[in-house]
User: What shape does this take?
Amino acid sequence: MNWILQALNGFSLGALLFLLASGFTLTFGLLRVVSMAHGMYYLLGGYIGLSVVWFTGNFWLALLAGGSSIAILNYFVNRYLIRRTGENHLAQVLLTVGVVLILADIALTIWGGDSLSLPPPAFARGPIELPGNIFYPKYRFLLIVFGAIIGAVLWIFYRKTQIGAIVRAGVEDREMVNAMGINIDRLFTLVFALAAFLAGMSGVAGGAFLSLYPGAEWEILVLALVVVIVGGLGSLEGAMVGSVIVGLVDAYARWLLPEFSHFAVFAPMAVLLLFRPQGLFGKEA
Amino acid sequence: MVLRKWPLLFCAVAAALFAPLYLGPFWLSLLMQILIFGLLALSVELLLGHIGLFSVCQAAFFAVSAYTVAILQVKYGQPTIVAVPAGLGAAIILSLIYGIAVRTSGVYFILVTIALGHVFWGISWTWVSFTNGEGGITNVPAPAVGSLTITSHSSYYYIVLAVVALCVVGYRTLTRSPFGLTLRGIRESESRMRGLGYNIAAHKYTAFVLAGTLSGIAGLLYIYFNRFVSPANAEFFLSIEVALMVLVGGTGTILGPFIGSAIMLGLRNYVSAYIDQWMIVMGLIFIITMLWTPDGVLGVIRRLGVWGRTSHNQPGHRTPTPEEGK
Assistant: This one.
């Protein structure tokens, strides 16, 4: 019984991590941009969603507002800062850390240093009864469904549509796609906006079961990084499998080895580094 | 040009030796911090400037030696003579383990070291029974050998100065040795060095462990200076801050990390006296450095032609991208 409950916990954390890591990994795959701001986007999106819920009480509006405000913010960060670093990843990392520091200080002034949590929408409160007489928090269950839907939509978009084919071609060889007469800059803007939208939205979704507090931006970012390292940088399928693995390991470790739960999440990463440094779905570096 | 360097060096040594005579306690303690964090930044420089690997987990090695000393001295009542080698040993062991990171390169290496650094921070934070968690370990006694106890700030300053000077001399010897040349060869072209028969993995691993050891030494100096260690000393943020010191100062030189450390710590002391938003200022320094002065203060000086001759490892006077050399 407990095994199933913990698996559900793992899947719901995995769903959240997927929302964050898929954007990170696509941004890298296509744009060759490593953005440390992703964790901050999560936290800021959550805070903005929280304010929207406070004022309007509408959870869907909060999801939309959290996602789109971050997408707009990211447009400016990309246009005026990241674009200027070229493909120097070291510069990108330090530059985006600088952005995080500034945003974190602003967020601290607006929302304060206390741990805040977002009230889940009315229809998602209370427990849900699953087959086998299992009672589970409805919100977390819906989050798994939501994550699976987003995953499926992204996968279909990426693998089955024409835009997806162009994106994949862009990951393989950017110059060639450009030479074929496709406006790759517009495509980049689209993917970057989508990634930022997902990050902001995951903050709203995550704020309702993990709380929002200063410092959460790094904790969630590191988990997303582990997902990406395990799955392989630049691969959507890798982000799916990686987030499920990290979510499950985290849930079972919290239950079985509470003292070392912090440590356990990194074990799959260490194993992969030893045997397959490029990650499960990554290409040879 | 070479001749002009010696009087400068002589003046610097004299100024450093007599610092306790003319500096007040505040400035002396700032100077010690500059030396200690400069040494930590030098360990980042060893990897970044010579193999082009950007490590974001140096704070872990810094903190593991500080924690080992603090726990042995405070909780187990061991003397300095036991605690210091144990602290250094802990840093070496941790870097031997974390050395698996060198199996990756480029962006992967950055991401992996962020995660590895976070593991150690997590342990120092959650293993409350051993590390006291958030509160950290306080009241670390002054270093003592036999009956000799070093209590005064100015005598500890000489220890810091001597250790840092020794490390710098060792670092200089190492990077000018065939080993150091091989490292820079790997940075320039890994495939060519492999073709020449060099064991790339072993060289990277050794450099990583050496950098970890250097960070550990900085941690040892820090714990007896600060007498207190907390998870804040293991944070991702500290690793990033020292990396920025290297870039602010300029990569490719020994002086760069120390100049960067002096600028950052000096600025922090100055700015936090006036406003609370130190983080925003820090963020702006990150952005300004990366956008306009990617080769640091020394790079700017060099571009202005003041310095004349560049330092020994020519190609290092710009920020090497981790993707290069493939």
Q: What stands out?
A: Chain B touches chain A through 47 residues (CB under 8 Å). Confidence is low (pLDDT under 50) at residues 308-326 of chain B. The longest helix of chain B spans residues 25-51. The CA atoms of residues 99 and 205 of chain B lie 6 Å apart.
